[in-house]
Amino acid sequence: MATVEHFASTLPGGAYYDPARYAQEIARIFGEHWVCAGRAESVKRPGDFITVTIGDEHIVVVCGQDRTVRAFLNVCRHRGARICTDGAGSANVFQCRYHAWTYTLEGKLQGAPNIASFAGFDRDAHALVPVAIEMWQGLIWLNLSPMPGSLAEQVQPALHERFASVEQFERYGMSDLVTGKRITYDVAANWKLVVENFLECYHCAPMHPEFCALLPGFRVAVPPQGMVGTGTPFADDVEQFSLSGTGNRPRLPGLTEGEDRQYFGFIFPPNVLVSLLPDHVVVHTAHPRGPERTEVVCDWLFAPDVVADPAFDPGDTVAIFDLVNTQDWDVCELTQQGMRSRAYARGGTLVPAEHDLVSFHTLIQAWLGASGAEQ
Amino acid sequence: MATVEHFASTLPGGAYYDPARYAQEIARIFGEHWVCAGRAESVKRPGDFITVTIGDEHIVVVCGQDRTVRAFLNVCRHRGARICTDGAGSANVFQCRYHAWTYTLEGKLQGAPNIASFAGFDRDAHALVPVAIEMWQGLIWLNLSPMPGSLAEQVQPALHERFASVEQFERYGMSDLVTGKRITYDVAANWKLVVENFLECYHCAPMHPEFCALLPGFRVAVPPQGMVGTGTPFADDVEQFSLSGTGNRPRLPGLTEGEDRQYFGFIFPPNVLVSLLPDHVVVHTAHPRGPERTEVVCDWLFAPDVVADPAFDPGDTVAIFDLVNTQDWDVCELTQQGMRSRAYARGGTLVPAEHDLVSFHTLIQAWLGASGAEQ
Amino acid sequence: MATVEHFASTLPGGAYYDPARYAQEIARIFGEHWVCAGRAESVKRPGDFITVTIGDEHIVVVCGQDRTVRAFLNVCRHRGARICTDGAGSANVFQCRYHAWTYTLEGKLQGAPNIASFAGFDRDAHALVPVAIEMWQGLIWLNLSPMPGSLAEQVQPALHERFASVEQFERYGMSDLVTGKRITYDVAANWKLVVENFLECYHCAPMHPEFCALLPGFRVAVPPQGMVGTGTPFADDVEQFSLSGTGNRPRLPGLTEGEDRQYFGFIFPPNVLVSLLPDHVVVHTAHPRGPERTEVVCDWLFAPDVVADPAFDPGDTVAIFDLVNTQDWDVCELTQQGMRSRAYARGGTLVPAEHDLVSFHTLIQAWLGASGAEQ
């Protein structure tokens, strides 16, 4: 590895707190790319809906009577009121509380008081504003752009960089898993610090002793994680990836015997962090909520029959990543506190084990475009 | 009615959250027009004072020894400290706490420590800064402009649009009424959404079932309210405008027999909402407190002998508009949440029953002037 | 005194709330001059450290193994995390929690995980960023400028203006005193209002009756404080400067008999307020924390043997300035409330007793430079 690459710079401090830079990222990254909005399992039956916030937009994702899942800006076309005020639920129609304008689950304006008397009113022009949506790997992906690019082109490179083949990843069967536990964290740090934290394990030895006890490969600076197709193996005395290191939950149905003692971590840019374990999958989604605030939704996914079992208890499994999360948010927040210093005006230093941050920064800057890169 | 007029647009979303637009409105609307600051009855006796905030200005309104009511910026001419720190009360003089500069109730600088030694000091040049004031209809009106326009020209059009004659309005005798109840509400919405909400009853059927039970005319899209000189009649089984619909409070002294079963609602622009009932009057004043925050002061006014009666109990009367208020602020806040959406960047749609909003927007834009209209 | 000078203006209101003006002051005054950061006694032994915030910078001040006290930006050179997270304490090294980069007490990068493998890594280029520091009069002075000016040139004029000779001041022996009590106040006012409040005693008669009972000279408009070399004498019946006026604490060791019944007050610009009493010294430091917020740290200093005495009780001594402080912050906050008024857009009026504010404003504007003066 060349010296030049070893000691690349981080982004300058301003990239982590400047409100104008943040607005650019919301517009160009979160406003023009595919963003994960939650779990497909939440909207399986007609009428099932969830709502989600991306930047300044509040969006409702709903399963239609035709079992097609659609997404709409959650804004009445009449006077602008938020229509759907719950985070999740089931509905027959969406009726605005203000003037009772009523939309079908497919977004059509079904009716409004006195609408029959509105001579010349174009009902179709007052449908809910649709948002591009795709369902992939059990995740809901939204794209606020009027001309959305390809989801595959956005997410496939991450798979090719991490796995020997897409099939290796697909054996985890993420589309079929269900959520056994969700924890939402409020982190006082820029969203990129949260993603960057996941992209290197140089901090694992000092920060995560419990995690490294399960996965001793992470104690060294360049973890096996960096090797395409190879996961990080469990310690010999570890039965299962859990805080206690014990457990006998069966491996996910698609996996083979050789795949039941390793960890894979990678991201779907911009903000989905995936951790694959033999018996469960952890998905973090880092939602920017301000230049110096991030909401992280963490879902622990299991095979459906596992969750359906009345004896299902994910406590020991959840405990390890919940602990790691807490440790990570703490240092993300300490890092945020340094971003305004003149010591960091031109950024810090990246070491070899942090090479994945360089790729992330390059991607971010490319998405921001030339003017973003000036920051 | 022409199609063009039916489906006018609302103001664009930015008019409801942009801080620069808000600053313009504070400067040009609330800084250059007459603004209602409270009740004249509060400052009847020499020394009586109230304080009020308009935009960035804190103002004291005080009844002088000569029984003339004056208003002053509540700022010491010496070092700028706020002088009068209570919301209401009675004073002999106003003395700044910082250096004991003392002003008469008429705003003159009466004295200051060592003032006799200040060679060449111009005492008159250090009087409190006056604010234009008029008392009309029992309301205190202030105008921060150094060249205030005519209050009559500002408020009379509202009367001509709503009543057959000014006399019809004046029979309610608002100048003689007294406050039986005041409730102050904190609303997380732009002040214009609060005013607009009052200007249409298209929302009354879905939002205000209790209100419509008293005034069934409001269940239809174009209420009788729109007809000059004619109020909205009470439902046949309603004795009085109260939550229970019962009561036997006598009608206001100036009213005639034919005027005792109807409701009139209208606004004095920019921000006073008036509801006339046979036995009481409700006055809402919407004070902007930020681009997305409004303080609404709601006064329930009655004849003086009614309030003076030891058995006076306004509870049932207050309950109906307090309920309506709560319902309204809820949807105003939901509407505020949609203002930043791209779905509302160019605004929403107005239906025929909302034609009074078009007039309001036209007036607002005229007051803002050309640069305001660009928003 | 000429009329022109009597009635100088204060700074315009905007100087006390405008965020751009505030940013200028942080950059040019607090970023390019010597700023008091605390007590030298806090960092006497190797490993002793304190942390302090100046503007956007968080700084660690630490006594090295060589007993030299140094200051560093508290930011890891790797990824920018805050390194030292306590307000004060003792350390052997500074280790960043994130990746365990470890710095010596002298700021050198001692080690980092895998550092031996970083081919071509320049360890010296990754030392903590130093901040200029001087110890004077028992106070720690920091200067964030890369080319700091002379501390003596900044602080000596204040001594020459107040004392007959520097020796008169030095007899108080501030370098040898120790802190008997610290109180930190959070004041909702611009830092300059806090300093200006200390620079005049025109407010003492109306605001501080207890203080004036001890020092009756402050009841008159032009206090003896104005006279070079002469302190304000105690009232005849006062034994000691304390709330009760009683006490028999011995005078500070360097003082002579004639110096044991007087008060001296003066400032070290920009933000250190010094009060000399025969038996103790009070030091206020006003730290700007926002355009309209100031943190005031108030230290009561005594001779070391006084504090070491098990019977030491500073309560009565502390009570008088704590009371004065509370009275002062109250009017500083009232004054802040007037700054945005149009009545104060061009500022207020200064009277003869406030002539020291003119000097302060002149100095501030000189430090801000031409563009600052435009405000």
Find the structural class of chain A using helix and strand composition.
alpha+beta
End-to-end Cα distance of chain A: 28 Å
Based on DSSP secondary structure assignment, what is the total number of beta strands of chain A? 16
- Along the chain, the helix and strand elements of chain A come as HHEEEEEEEEEEHHEHHHEEEEEHHH
Largest sheet of chain A: 7 strands, antiparallel
Strand content of chain A: 15-25%
Instruction: Determine the fraction of residues in helical runs of chain A and give it as a percent range.
Output: 25-40%
> So what's the overall shape of chain A?
globular
Low-confidence stretches of chain A: 1-5, 370-375
Report the mean per-residue pLDDT of chain A as an integer: 94
- What is the count of DSSP helices of chain A, taking H or I runs of 4+ residues? 10
List the quaternary state of the chains.
homotrimer
Describe what you observe in this structure.
The structure is a homotrimer of 375-residue chains. The first copy, chain A, contains 10 helices and 16 strands. The first copy, chain A, has helices at 3-6, 19-30, 151-162, 166-170, 191-199, 204-207, 209-214, 304-308, 315-338, 355-373, and strands at 34-39, 48-54, 57-63, 69-73, 88-90, 94-95, 102-103, 109-111, 130-136, 139-143, 178-187, 232-233, 262-268, 272-276, 281-290, 293-302. In chain A, the strands form 3 sheets. A 7-stranded antiparallel beta sheet of chain A has the order 1-10-9-4-3-2-5, with no helix packed on it. Chain A has a 6-stranded antiparallel beta sheet with strand order 11-16-15-14-13-12, with helices on both faces. Chain A is globular and about 75 Å long. The first copy, chain A, starts with a helix and ends with a helix. At the A-B interface, loops of A face α6 and α9 of B.
